[in-house]
Amino acid sequence: MEINENSVQKTRKPNQLLLYAIILIFSIALASICFHKQHRIKELAMSFYSFPDPVYGLAEKDSAELVRQLLASEKRIAGLKRKIENFAPNQPYLIVNTTTNTFVLRTRDKIIREGLCSTGSYTQLDAGEDLQWIFKTPKGMFRIQSKLKRPLWVKPDWAFIEEGLPVPPKNHPDRYQYGTLGDYALSLGQGYLIHGTLYQRFLGQPVTHGCIRLGDDDLKEVFFKLNEGSKVYIF
Amino acid sequence: MKINSILQRVKDLLVKGIALLSAIPLKTVLVFISIQLAVLALAFVVLGLLPVHREVKRISNELVYQPGNSPNSPTHASIELARQLIKSEHHEAILNSTFMLSKSDSISLIIDLNDSLAILSFKGINLFQSKISTIKFNKGLAKLPLYLLDSLFSGPFATETEFSSIEKFPIVVKKAPKDSIEAKLANKAPELPKHRDVFWYFSFSNSLTIELHQEEETLVGLRSDFKKYQLKKSKWLRQKNLNAITQTNQRGYTYQLSIEIPREDARSIYRALPVNPMVIVRY
After folding, report:
1. What is the pLDDT of residues B136-166, one digit of tens each?
2. CA A155, CA A157: separation in Å to the nearest integer?
3. Can you name the residues that pair with B157 across neighbouring β-strands?
4. pLDDT in tens, A54-89
5. For residues B132 and A214, what is the distance between their CA atoms, to the nearest angstrom?
6. What is the mean pLDDT of chain B?
7. pLDDT of residue A1
8. What are the chain B neighbours of A137 within 8 Å (beta carbons)?
9. B162, B235, B170: which is closest to B204 by C-alpha?
10. pLDDT value at position A232?
11. pLDDT above 90 for B118
């Protein structure tokens, strides 16, 4: 009999250990799932709470006083709205979206014209020997510095490097090109222009070296509507 | 024949499994269930109730107008008047914030939930606006009355952490061609940026997070990009939740606002905003 009991105990022991191990593994796994799904647990916990609404505390005040406060607040709102509206320029201004490559020419009250444009390609041209250019359109608020009819393009170094051509010296005749920039150009400063393009099919795409290209008719309207000092917002 | 033998093996395994399970003593089963229930209860208390309770207590202390100071209970008309006043003061606060931001030199984001608009604002000009198609609040944010939303979660506040499924500046590096022949071959067509899906996540120091999803359900980009974004988000949330347990000075609950706008609008807004932009929310 003794021999039999011992043999039963020997066979049961590992089973029980296995069961304890399984319980432990399940508990750890459950705790780990709970930790990973903590935001759900918090959402559930939040169901048991509520925040006091201050409306009732405020409503205990004198009604006449509340009306006075409400009128004063509405008056301040009207004043603030006027102040904010005054930020918009009186003259027509241009907004350029460099992500969708679109523009809006507008006044404070209405849109004059909207359409496609081309802006910086975000290409980094690497010519080695620390020669690098990033072709992106700057963002922010700019003012029209000058306006040009039949603008002349003075090709910068990168234009030659990009075409695999040797870079000519400054003022070399190869650097001057008429017609490439279209009929009109508006300067934003630091070499950035709003100009026309020979590549009308690329309008709406980010393909420029930083300038803003417009279609012929759009450029004409923008050129004649904007004056020196007019604002251009680029984002 | 093959299917039959597989079915037979599955059947055998099932029988063995059932036999094994039935051999487990009832006491052990009860111990197992009780331990799992205890783990669940403990997790609910430690990970849920305690941090949420801490947060609710903290927020409730912010209230200025505590009810119950007057012997007379307020009338329906005065409650309506008080509601109007709070709404008006909230609008005023938003306009004040917009006016303040108009003086700054960077583009900011105004999320107007009242008119369902996401607006890019710069120097007082609305550069761009997009219609919000879906607005979702998590429970904590949905439970907050307007007064608290206004005073605690309308901003303007600077983004503390941000991550997205797209890059801010999609720069493509191009090697300069060796000669004009190579240049002509490379310049056949301009290299356009790849279309990718747009999701972004902003978190603020006041425990508010704003998540923006493209409203289009079908992905145009890689599924792996979306998964990478989800992974970043869950990793950040896990770390935040862990901090809430280990450090009592950390906020125990994250208020989450989710909005959906068209993909291209979301891309325009994200790319236009500077790193860690200022945000205003009108509820």
Report:
1. 999 999 999 888 888 888 889 999 999 999 9
2. 7
3. B279
4. 788 788 878 888 899 999 999 999 999 999 988 889
5. 30
6. 88
7. 46
8. none
9. B162
10. 97
11. yes
Using pLDDT thresholds of 50, 70 and 90, give the confidence band for residue B109.
very high
Sign of CA dihedral B138, B140, B143, B145: negative
Neighbours of A25 (CB within 10 A): 10
Q: What does the buried/exposed string (b/e) look like for B204-233 if buried means 16 or more CB atoms within 10 Å of the residue's CB?
A: beebbbbbbbbbeeeeeeeeebeeebeeeb
d(C-alpha A159, C-alpha B176), whole Å: 11
CB contacts of B172 in chain A (<8 Å) are 121-124
Find residues 200-239 of chain B whose CB sits inside 8 Å of chain A.
234, 237-238
What is the C-alpha separation between B22 and A97, in angstroms, rounded? 70
Predicted confidence band at A128 (pLDDT cuts at 50, 70, 90)? confident
Using CA atoms, how far apart are residues B150 and A128, in angstroms rounded to an integer?
A: 54
Residue B188 pLDDT: 64
- Alpha carbons B159 and B279: distance in angstroms, whole number: 7
Identify whether the C-beta of residue B252 lies closer than 8 Å to the C-beta of residue A79: no
Q: The domain B76-282: what is its CATH number?
A: 2.40.440.10
Chain A closest-CA separation from residue B2 CA (Å): 34
pLDDT at A9 over 60: no
> Strands B199-203, B208-214: parallel, antiparallel or unpaired by DSSP?
antiparallel
Give the C-alpha separation, B212 to B259, whole Å: 5
Which stretch of A28-32, A57-61, B129-133 has the lowest confidence by average pLDDT? A57-61
ipTM: 0.83
Rounded CA gap, A49 and B41, in Å? Answer: 18
Residue B40: CB partners within 8 Å, gap ≥ 6?
A: A30, A34
Length of chain B: 283
User: What are the residue boundaries of the structural domains of chain B, listed by start?
Assistant: 2-60, 76-282
Q: For tokens 């597989």, what's the residue?
A: B6
Structure tokens at B22: 């039935």
Closest-CA residue of A relative to B147 is A54
Read off the amino acid at residue A231. K
Sort out which chain B residues have CB atoms less than 8 A from A136's CB and list them.
Answer: 169, 171
CA B112 and chain centroid, separation: 16
**B86, B169, B272: residue with CB nearest A122:** B169
Q: Is the pLDDT assigned to residue A97 strictly greater than 90?
A: yes
Average pLDDT on A88-111 reads 95
B17 at A interface, C-beta within 8 A: no
Q: Is B71 on the interface with A (CB under 8 A)?
A: no
> What type of residue sits at position B86?
I
- Is the bond preceding residue B156 a cis peptide, omega within 30 degrees? yes
Work out the minimum CA distance from B189 to partner chain A, whole angstroms. 10
With H, G, I as helix, E, B as strand and everything else as coil, classify residue B189: coil
Q: Alpha-carbon distance B111 to A101, whole Å?
A: 23
